[in-house]
Amino acid sequence: MLRVGLIGTGVALRTHLPGFRRTGQAEVVGLVGSSLERATHFARQHNILQVYSDYQELCEADDIDLIVVASPNSFHHQQVKYALQQGKHVLAEKPLAMNLQEIEELVELAANSDRLALIDHQLRFSPYMQTIKEHIQEGKLGRLYFIRFHFQGGSSDPQRAFDWHFDESMGGGVRLAMASHLTDLLWFWLESRKVYNVHGRMDSLVPQRKDATGQQKEVTTSGFFTAHISLEDNLEVQMSDTMAFGESQFTIALYGTRGELYFDAQCGLEGAFVGGESMQPIAVDMQNLEQARPDASIFRQSFDLFARQIVRSLQSGDHKHIPDAAHFQDAVPTQRVLDAIRHSTLSGEVIQLSEGYRPGASS
User: Fold this and answer.
1) Whole-angstrom distance, CA of residue 221 vs CA of residue 37
2) In whole angstroms, how far apart are CA 268 and each of 97, 138, 150, 247, 281?
3) From CA 76, how far away is CA 79, in angstroms rounded?
């Protein structure tokens, strides 16, 4: 039985805890929260036996094999680093760290360790995302020239209380929350990761929010972002995410010279190809989803499938590689894009990341 310790009482309890329990081969045995009182409350609620006073104590525990780091983003670097130094396997929530220097330190530490070191980019395990990858790599779309991502979720309600999600120093905001996922899907689907330039914009939407004491606090993170990314082979990518009043939406459109695909998290995957009819449903192998939570979001269902792969890998003794998973080195190109979106917003300029950009047409 794999023994798991959780750092965090948000997504760790909503996604990671039920995902590992659903495998039937992992047990969550320890929890750390922002306070001992908070962790104790949630441990009782979720039947977790042991509460630890801080992440160091959790990482030093002899009866824990895997540490899940799902704390506010600004804490990821120090907690992941300490867990690896204590000889633990690590699953880190995205983003892996707050900047490229921190990420490169963790990449080197993981490379010199025999422990499993993964990032929770669980969408790679979605049958829909894997089917899209197959269509791209088998050439069914021809030359891919445009991808459009859009996500909306959270709440634009100005009455929502201020917390770490609205504090830039803590790593909040939709840029880090969602652009990391969307950018990682590009690396998952595409063999090339050469990005020429990035043009981004962000908006806090609600400039101030009241904290738990009723004090007005400045919102320093993005409630909306949009980015245009130019990659080699004349591939243009547009991505956006916004906090919204309505229901969550997640859509992806991919356009190639021989076909196109359209994904909607509510409706599934459709496609149209040269010589065929208009948009038709695309067959997706849904057998694996029988192992996931029914009626859960694509993120939680995908994590259920990812958790099974993590458990299987550790039980087999293969601690260095899980097919399709995001490893620490995958965070490097992602962070470059995330940084470029921010720098473009602040400067109003297109951020050049590589030389050699050539537009596909002049008019």
Assistant:
1) 28
2) 32, 20, 15, 17, 8
3) 5
CA distances (Å), origin 341, targets 115, 172, 204, 357: 32, 15, 14, 18
| CATH match of 124-289+334-352 with 3.30.360.10 | yes
Specify the DSSP class assigned to residue 87: T
Q: Which fold has domain 2-119?
A: Rossmann fold (3.40.50)
Closest CA to 126 of 256, 260, 306: 306
SS (H, E, C) 228-285: EEEECCCEEEEEEEEECCCCCEEEEEEEECCEEEEEECCCEEEEEECCCCCCEECCCC
Q: Is residue 355 scored above 90 in pLDDT?
A: no
Q: What is the pTM of this model?
A: 0.95
If phi over 0 gives left and psi between -120 and 50 gives alpha, with beta otherwise, what is residue 123? alpha
Tokens 């297109």 belong to which residue?
350
Domain ranges of the chain: 2-119, 124-289+334-352
Whether the per-residue pLDDT at 164 is higher than 50: the answer is yes
